[in-house]
């Protein structure tokens, strides 16, 4: 079980297996588990960044559409 601080400052927990398969080296199992946790944290951060970017772009698009609509109405009134 691992824990890290997410982008909002809230603790996030991850669970991965750190057991070495069969007669494997237990240290290797731990290293593998840490690598899996790192990958999961990166994927979660990238996913959050994508959602934030899409939200911002959508907001900007709505703002631009509103400005274009007002401009078209102003030109129509001339």
Automatic annotation (TrEMBL):
Q: Which domain of life is it from?
A: Eukaryota
- State any GO CC term: EKC/KEOPS complex
Q: Which InterPro entries match?
A: GON7_meta
> Which protein are we looking at?
GON7 isoform 2
Organism lineage string: Eukaryota, Metazoa, Chordata, Craniata, Vertebrata
């Amino acid at each position: 079980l691992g824990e890290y601080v997410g982008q909002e400052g809230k603790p996030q927990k991850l669970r991965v297996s750190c057991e070495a398969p069969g007669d494997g080296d237990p240290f290797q199992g731990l290293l593998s588990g840490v690598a899996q946790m790192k990958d999961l944290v990166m994927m979660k951060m990238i996913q959050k960044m994508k959602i934030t970017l899409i939200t911002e772009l959508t907001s900007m698009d709505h703002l631009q559409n509103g400005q274009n609509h007002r401009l078209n109405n102003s030109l129509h009134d001339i």
